[in-house]
Design a protein that fits this description.
The chain is an alpha+beta fold. It is 35% helix and 20% strand. The chain has two domains: 85 residues, Phosphorylase Kinase, domain 1 (2-Layer Sandwich); 173 residues, Transferase(Phosphotransferase) domain 1 (Transferase(Phosphotransferase), domain 1). The longest helix is centred in the middle third of the chain and has 20 residues. It starts with a strand and ends with a helix.
């Protein structure tokens, strides 16, 4: 394991990220713990340029965002063949791990988490940033149930110089919108679809659409998931997960408002 990245002193390995190892480290200048996300650039020149560009795009995208429900980016740099992003170190657990352990959370807790994620996404969308990979493993739950969105690793900025090309499918198939599975141009409504899938899973213990592989979007377009038996927020799932994006919730703040109303009713 490496011991130093730029000025940061590496303490230990936290796990594997989408493009490299994630470390826990210390910033000696201000004596602060940070998480360091890395990408190994010792690839073929063409691949290296593409990955490095995408890596810095993530830093640029996420670095523009300052919101309580989005992980904070502190710094970006390069050390020999390793590019890295220093970000807020979160003392908490992935929502994925919580769901694997608990399966079904109380409805009030489900709504509290989804509202927070929706608030973070709404803020990102206002800044023309689409996350593209909303799923439980990209949501951290820290103290007092506070939710933070992580990993804007495949985020697409409308104004970015480096763009995810049409036809290149990036994301997690179980949570992806039909238009993303097909490699079409996507916008904020794709994140809203993914959030609806996540809500459905939190209410039922399973995802609504299961295909054989990433190239089988027909399972999404041609099937209707069973309505969740937990009745309070059921009407929110269909409006988020309508397969036709023009009929989906057009703005994330609309979703936040409706969910808040339901939360107050239970």
């Amino acid at each position: 394991m490496i011991s130093q990245l730029g000025r940061y002193e590496v303490i230990g390995e936290l796990g594997q990220g989408a493009m490299g190892v994630v470390y826990k480290a210390r910033d000696p200048l201000i004596d602060r713990e940070v998480a360091i996300k890395t990408i190994n650039l010792s690839l073929a020149m063409e691949e290296r340029d593409e990955y490095e560009a995408r890596f810095y795009q993530e830093a640029k995208a996420a670095g523009r965002l300052s919101h309580p429900n989005i992980v904070t980016i502190y710094d970006v740099g390069r050390s020999e063949d390793i590019a890295y992003i220093a970000m807020e170190y979160l003392h908490g657990r992935e929502l994925r791990d919580i769901l694997n352990e608990t399966k079904l959370l109380p409805i009030s807790e489900v709504l509290a988490i989804v509202i927070q994620v929706a608030q973070g996404l709404a803020y990102a969308h206002e800044h023309d940033i689409v996350h593209r990979d909303v799923k439980p493993s990209n949501v951290m739950i820290v103290r007092d149930g506070h939710a933070k969105i992580t990993d804007f690793g495949i985020a697409r900025m409308v104004s970015a110089a480096v763009r995810t090309q049409t036809g290149m499918v990036l994301g997690s198939p179980k949570y992806m919108s039909p238009e993303q599975v097909l490699g079409k141009e996507i916008d904020r409504r794709s994140d809203i679809f993914s959030l609806g899938v996540m809500l459905y899973e939190m209410l039922t213990g399973q995802v609504p659409f299961i295909g054989e592989n990433i190239n089988a979007p027909s399972c999404i377009r041609r099937s209707t998931p069973f309505p969740p038996r937990r009745a309070v927020p059921t009407r929110q799932c269909p409006r988020c997960s309508i397969t036709s994006s023009p009929k989906r919730w057009p703005r994330t703040w609309m979703r936040v408002t409706r969910m808040r109303v339901i939360w107050l009713m239970i």
